[in-house]
Amino acid sequence: MLEELKPFILTFIPIFAAVDAFGNIPFFIALTHTLSKKHKQAVIRESVVTATVIAVLFMFLGKLVLRILGIGIEDFQIAGGILLLVISVHLLLAGKRKGSVLTEGSREVGVFPLGTPLITGPAVLTMTLIMLDSFGPLRTFVSLLMNMFIVWLTFRYTDFFVRVIGEAGMKALSKIMYIILAAIAVMMMRKGLTAVFL
To answer: Whole-model pTM?
Structure first.
């Protein structure tokens, strides 16, 4: 029994590390704490569906598309980093308009930056292809779906953290997370550029 489960475990753990479900909780809180419960649920659905669809499509079509277009993973890192930097700067400097930006664009927040590149980013795309080559499509697909379910669970129960931290703490956390988001964007671009030139 254990031997049969071992390949699934070996596939699940690297994808779990790449998805970083628990590490994305602060970003989810920072991006959605001004939204109503209904809008927040819509963001959760949009983010998980977007992340899952992108990961599954890339798993089956990624190699072919990259080969046809001549695109490398480093290109994803650079492009994703630029987009993430733009939105993090926008959120930091939006001031009084920040709340309305998040409310009116709640579904867009679910797709970007939560769905991609925070949940399904270059690390997940790369790891998916590696696991596909190592353990086959079935184990990779099941492990991917399990990880996305964990993401849904963590996002679904973030209200607990909001109650513990409080409103003032949420505002402070939001600013810190936007700065870290910008730093992650720079890191993604740096890794992509390093891979291209070195």
So the answer is: 0.75
Tokens matching residue 187:
């890191």
Domain positions in the chain: 7-197
d(CA 15, CA 26): 20
- Alpha-carbon distances, residue 95 vs 16, 34, 47, 86, 105 (angstroms): 35, 13, 25, 15, 16
Respond yes or no on whether the N-terminal peptide bond of residue 137 is cis (omega within 30° of 0).
Answer: no
What the block records as the tokens of 162 is: 């909001």
How far is the C-alpha of 62 from the C-alpha of 124, rounded, in Å? 12
E strands, the chain, are none
Q: How far is CA 16 from the centre of its chain?
A: 12
Helix (H, G, I), strand (E, B) or coil at 1: coil
pLDDT in tens, 12-33: 999 998 898 888 888 898 888 7
How many whole angstroms from its chain centre is CA 176? 18
